[in-house]
Design brief:
Helix content: 40-55%
Largest sheet: 2 strands, antiparallel
Radius of gyration: 24 Å
Protein name: Abi family protein
Strand content: under 5%
Distance between the termini: 57 Å
Number of domains: 2
Pfam families: Abi_2 (PF07751)
Number of strands: 2
Shape: globular
Length: about 325
C-alpha cells in the first residue's frame, strides 16, 4: 500500500490570513479575519470560499477536468472581488438556512413517528418487532453480508431502546413490560424511521402515506433518504446551501404541485428540490405554517460573492426565490 503524502503544514491564524491575501482574497480587517478563523475554523470556512477560486484552464481557455472526480479543477487563487467578509456572511446565510430546514424536518419526523406508530400499532402493539410487516426481500441476507437488512435494523433498533435513558423507557424496563410501538419510536432517529418505512410491505406503507395524502411509495422513500441526509448535515453544522446529492428526488407522476414547479434535474439533486418536498409535507402537517416565506426571505438575502450563485442551490435563475410559484 502506498504511504499517504504528508499533511499540509500547520499555520497560525495570522499566517492563514496572510495566505488568503496572497491568493487574491480581499481582507479589509486582518484582526477581524483572525477572530473569525479562530471562531469558525479555516477548514470550515474554506467550503464557503471554494466556489470563488479560479478554474484551471487549458491553452484553449477551456476548464480542465479532474480525471477522478470529473469536476473542473480549481486553482488556489481567487476570482476578482472575492472578499473574506462575504465568505463569513455566506456562512451565516447557510446557518440560517440550516436552522429553518432543521425546524421543518423536526416537524416532519415527529409527525411521521406518530403516524407510523399509530397505523402499525393499532394492528399490533409490537409490530416493530414483527417480520410479518416486512417485505421478504429485506429478510434475506445478500452475498458478502452476514445479516439481512431487517436483522441489522432490529439489532440497531434494540440497542437504541436499551440505551435510551428517558423515564418512560426506564419505567418499562423496571416493570419488565414490553415497550409498545408508540413508546419505541421515541428512541428512534430519522434514519431508523426511514429505513423501517422502506422495509415495510406495500399495505402498511399505504396506511402511512394515506395519512399524508400521498400514494407514491417510491417517491416518498427517496424523500426520506434525502431528508435524513439533510437532517444530519444540519445537526452537525455542515454546509447545505450548494450541496449536490448523487440521488435524484423522485416525484409522483402527474402531481399538480410538482408540475407547477417544473423542477429540473439540478433542482432534484439540490436544496431547491428539498425545499419543495419539505413545503409539500409541511402543508399537510401544519396547514398554517409560514415556513416557506421565511425560507424565501433567507434565500433572497444570499450574499453576493463570485461563483456563489442561486443556480448552485438548484434554483432556475439568478433572480432569487421563485415566490410566484409558491403563491407568496
Amino acid at each position: 500500500m502506498n504511504q499517504p503524502t504528508p499533511p499540509k503544514p500547520f499555520l497560525p491564524y495570522v499566517d492563514l490570513v496572510t495566505l488568503l491575501a496572497q491568493r487574491g482574497m480581499s481582507i479589509e480587517d486582518t484582526d477581524s479575519a483572525k477572530r473569525e478563523i479562530a471562531r469558525l475554523g479555516y477548514y470550515r470556512l474554506s467550503g464557503f470560499w471554494y466556489p470563488a477560486r479560479k478554474f484551471s484552464r487549458d491553452n484553449a481557455g477551456l476548464k480542465v477536468t479532474c480525471p477522478h472526480t470529473k469536476k473542473p479543477v480549481r486553482l488556489e487563487g481567487f476570482q476578482v472581488g472575492t472578499q473574506f467578509a462575504r465568505a463569513v456572511e455566506l456562512y451565516r446565510f447557510d446557518k440560517a438556512l440550516r436552522l429553518l430546514m432543521l425546524d421543518a424536518v423536526e416537524s416532519i419526523e415527529v409527525h411521521l413517528k406518530t403516524v407510523v406508530a399509530h397505523e402499525l400499532g393499532r394492528n399490533d402493539e409490537m409490530a416493530y418487532t414483527s417480520a410479518a410487516y416486512i417485505e421478504p426481500k429485506w429478510k434475506v441476507s445478500n452475498p458478502g453480508f452476514p445479516t439481512s437488512k431487517w436483522d441489522s435494523w432490529r439489532i440497531r433498533q434494540q440497542k437504541k431502546l436499551d440505551d435510551c435513558s428517558e423515564e418512560c423507557f426506564i419505567s418499562h424496563r423496571l416493570k419488565n413490560r414490553s415497550i409498545p410501538f408508540w413508546v419505541a419510536v421515541e428512541a428512534w432517529d430519522f434514519g431508523t424511521l426511514s429505513v423501517y418505512f422502506q422495509m415495510l410491505k406495500r399495505k402498511p406503507q399505504g396506511w402511512v402515506l394515506a395519512r399524508l395524502g400521498l400514494a407514491d411509495v417510491r417517491a416518498f422513500t427517496s424523500w426520506l433518504k434525502e431528508l435524513n441526509t439533510l437532517r444530519n448535515r444540519c445537526a452537525h453544522h455542515t454546509r447545505i446551501w450548494n450541496q449536490s446529492s448523487s440521488n435524484v428526488l423522485g416525484l409522483p407522476p402527474t402531481d399538480p404541485y410538482f408540475e407547477a414547479l417544473n423542477l429540473n434535474s439540478s433542482a432534484l439533486k439540490r436544496l431547491y428540490g428539498l425545499i419543495a418536498v419539505v413545503w409539500l409535507l409541511l402543508q399537510r402537517i401544519e396547514p398554517h405554517s409560514q415556513w416557506i416565506r421565511e425560507v424565501a426571505d433567507v434565500i433572497d438575502s444570499k450574499p453576493a460573492m463570485p461563483g456563489c450563485s442561486f443556480v448552485a442551490m438548484g434554483f432556475p435563475s439568478e433572480t432569487g426565490f421563485p415566490r410566484e410559484l409558491f403563491g407568496i
